[in-house]
Amino acid sequence: MLPMARQTSSSEERSYEEAFRVATLYYYQGLNTEEIAAEMRFSRPKVSKLLNYARTNGLVQIKVIDSRKKLSPLEEVLRERFDLVRVHIVAAPEYLGEVSWLERVSRYTAHYLNATLEPRQTLGVAWGTTISEISLHLIPKVIPGLRIVQLNGSTNTTLADNRYAASILQSYAANYQASIQLFPVPSFFDYAETKAAMWRERSIRAILEMQEKADVLLYSIGSVEAGVPSRVYSGDFLEPSDMEQIRNENVVGDIATVFFRPDGSWEDIPLNHRASGPPLDLYRYAPRRVCVVSGRAKMPALHTALRSGYMNELIIDEPSARLLADEFLFLGDS
């Protein structure tokens, strides 16, 4: 595993020190921006810029605390119906569209991770469009002893290395100053026999065991119909014959490149025998399984994943959550 170190220049160090002092005056001593500008002989725009620097670089951690600990009615319905530990519905006006919904959900998730990840935990991360978007909004925080492990391979016939997934995971590792374990295997093997042979290698077994023992899993639901396309369907990871097989098998979605049908079944889908992602049983039994979903086209797949117990925490945008409730919640679930 590779430790990630943060390097700073003298100008960055100066900005850090100025932002720290400004934040202290603003949040601890109650001075307003005009008073801080006068005391430090800065312009007011510079004070505002430094306050923003302090917030985005982890000098300031803002928590919104619901002292009542009360869920919204829809959050409560979802939590009880699907036996979830936590449900987070992120406010997002419908007119903004799915790109903005995803951004809001990703920003929320970045704050949530900072509030809930703990020292010496192992975080399993499944690369993809949603997880990549979250990485853009991470807020720096040192979490001692945190380990990050990649859950599914990411090479394909047109991308022979691990750059796409590696860049995502390295963003998380650098943000938390965590160690990182990449998974240098294809997203999909050409032959199930090749995968089976590689899975017997000690180096790969060590990574698989790390995945299986992860304290927290962070992932999304993939869907071929998503408004913001899932990476696995849009990035040359699947051949035309694979897409035909997905249609023939009535696949509704995937988690970390492992596909499932509307009834939640996945074991006998031939493509899964070549997929590098963990068995879906992992998402039933890991201590914390945080699924982040945004976009209406993902709701059929999300509904199946919820019914199948493939998560115990859900973060979702409000318009998608309402669609989930209106069209899928009262279909005879028990």
Could you walk me through the main structural features you see in this protein, from its secondary elements to its overall organization?
The chain has 334 residues and is α/β, with parallel strands linked by helices. It has two domains: 9-56, Arc Repressor Mutant, subunit A, CATH 1.10.10; 73-328, 3-Layer(aba) Sandwich (Rossmann fold). The chain is 43% helix and 12% strand. It has 14 helices and ten strands. The chain has helices spanning 10-28, 33-40, 44-56, 73-81, 98-116, 129-135, 163-176, 192-198, 202-212, 231-234, 240-248, 282-285, 299-307, 318-328; strands at residues 2-3, 86-90, 122-125, 147-150, 179-181, 216-219, 253-255, 258-260, 288-293, 313-317. The strands form two sheets. Strands 1-5-4-3-6-9-10-2 form an eight-stranded mixed beta sheet, sandwiched between helices. β7 and β8 form a beta hairpin. α2 (33-40) packs across α3 (44-56) and α5 (98-116) packs across α6 (129-135). The longest helix is centred in the N-terminal third of the chain and has 19 residues, at 10-28. The radius of gyration is 22 Å and the shape is globular. The protein starts with a strand and ends in a 6-residue tail after the last helix. 38% of the residues are buried. The model has no long low-confidence stretch (mean pLDDT 87).
